[in-house]
Write a structure and sequence with these properties.
Layout: H1 4-17, H2 34-52, E1 75-77, E2 81-82, E3 94-95, H3 111-131, H4 134-148, E4 161-164, H5 181-191, H6 200-219, H7 221-227, H8 232-247, H9 251-261, H10 265-268, H11 276-279, H12 284-304, H13 313-331, H14 350-358, H15 377-389, H16 395-406
Parallel strand pairs: 1-4
Antiparallel strand pairs: 2-3
Length: 413
């Protein structure tokens, strides 16, 4: 099985990139090599038939119930918490930051099931978009109906019991970060709109689920706690509210959240672009990019709403500095001075840098060092291809992310 930290990086990419197709935007020279998109498209289509035969996923299939004893409630365990070796029964669990407890990904809970469900729908949706084969759309819609709509198998629209910690708490606001994957899923749903398999009734029911979940985020104690977080958790809360609000046709809410999130800029970013709240973690490079990925989501959501965002020059300068800081370190990995639990991979930064340049936050060559990844065509191409072909990564998940980033406009012949 693919190591979770590698899949987590790809899930980050999907959440940040798999957004609705927008009107063409100037890319400030950040063209993704055609060879890389061809590899990505082939990887998705090669995977489609096996994904079409996957069983239907549902939260009711877990083998352990949350505190509510309702199988329809999503349930997961906190990933960085482990049994206490000094306790006879292992309780209460103790925290080991950055060390992923893969036992939390078993059939007992829903996190891996959610990842697999979304991965399957993304592959099927992209395969339908690339080939026009209705079989892929039909199976994608069947998966969506089983997870969100069918009374016997639907997920209740809340994450009340996400990231529970045995011996400590039955669920946490922090668990809301797991639903960031639903941002990319909403794009896959949109891709299915041309198919007769996605009826207006089903599309409306899916939007109703998203709307109910959004209301839970806005009104629940868990939601309020996550919104109050100062680091990437708070940013991803905002990104979800913006994306879900636009998906369910509540643009005023999306615009309000985009305005409010700007208050985080001075808290999260130093004038030179450093992110102290993320750099104190055991995986600082991952978390610096993970937080920026949420900002990248909001850049594109704002564009889809017809906004120039951030509007104020001081806000744009602060956010641009954060992208520039990451760009410079991605281009010069040997200069990275922070201790890393799992090493440093420049490719993680690619999606954020492309989106920052696309939205004119890295539009000036003076913002980047001469050997920046985005300026050096000899380096960016192999990095994108490695991203898709790396055997240690889930190739289909990487491929759908890259296609979303490239926004490939036409099906393969």
């Amino acid at each position: 099985m693919i190591r979770y930290r590698q899949r987590q990086a790809l899930a980050l990419v999907l959440a940040a990139l798999a957004l609705p197709t927008l009107a063409p935007v100037a890319t400030a020279g950040t063209t993704i090599p055609e060879a890389a998109t061809d590899i990505a498209a082939s990887a998705v289509i090669d995977r489609a038939e096996s994904e079409r035969r996957k069983p239907l996923y549902s939260v009711v299939n877990k083998t352990r119930l949350p505190a509510s004893e309702d199988a329809h409630d999503y349930f997961s365990f906190a990933p960085y918490w482990w049994p206490d070796p000094d306790s006879d029964d292992g309780l209460p669990y103790v925290r080991r930051d950055g060390e992923y407890n893969e036992a939390t990904l078993g059939d007992a809970t829903d996190k891996q099931r959610l990842i697999d469900f979304i991965d399957t729908v993304n592959v099927l949706s992209w395969s339908y978009r690339l080939t026009g084969d209705e079989r892929y759309a039909q199976r994608a819609v069947a998966q969506l109906r089983h997870w969100f709509i069918a009374p016997e198998t639907r997920m209740a629209p809340n994450l009340r019991y996400a990231q529970a910690i045995p011996g400590r708490v039955e669920g946490r606001g922090i668990g809301i970060i797991e639903s960031r994957l639903l941002i990319g899923l909403s794009d896959s749903i949109r891709h299915l709109k041309p198919s007769p398999a996605l009826t207006d009734e089903t599309f409306g029911q899916l939007k109703q689920w998203y709307g109910d979940y959004l209301d839970w985020m806005l009104t629940s104690e868990n939601g309020r706690k996550e919104h109050a977080k100062r680091n990437n958790h708070g940013t991803w809360y905002d990104a979800q509210v913006v994306a879900f609000a636009r998906f369910v046709d509540r643009p005023a809410l999306a615009k309000r959240q985009l305005h409010e999130v700007l208050d985080r800029l001075e808290t999260q970013f130093e004038p030179d672009g450093r992110q102290p709240l993320e750099l104190e973690r055991t995986r600082p490079w991952h978390y610096a990019n993970f937080n920026l990925a949420a900002w990248s989501v909001m850049l594109r959501e704002a564009s889809a709403l017809g906004l120039t965002w951030p509007e104020e020059e001081a806000d744009r300068t602060r956010l641009a500095a954060a992208y520039r800081w990451v760009a410079n370190h991605a281009a010069n990995p040997d200069d990275w001075s922070y201790q890393e639990l799992h090493g440093f991979d420049s490719a993680i930064a690619l999606p954020n840098l492309v989106m920052a340049a696309r939205h004119h936050l890295l539009r000036d060559d003076s913002l980047l060092q001469d050997n920046s990844l985005l300026q050096d065509k000899g380096r960016i191409g192999p990095l994108f291809q490695r991203w898709v072909q790396d055997p240690d990564r889930d190739s289909a998940m990487a491929a759908t992310a890259l296609l979303s980033l490239a926004k490939r406009p036409t099906p393969l012949p």
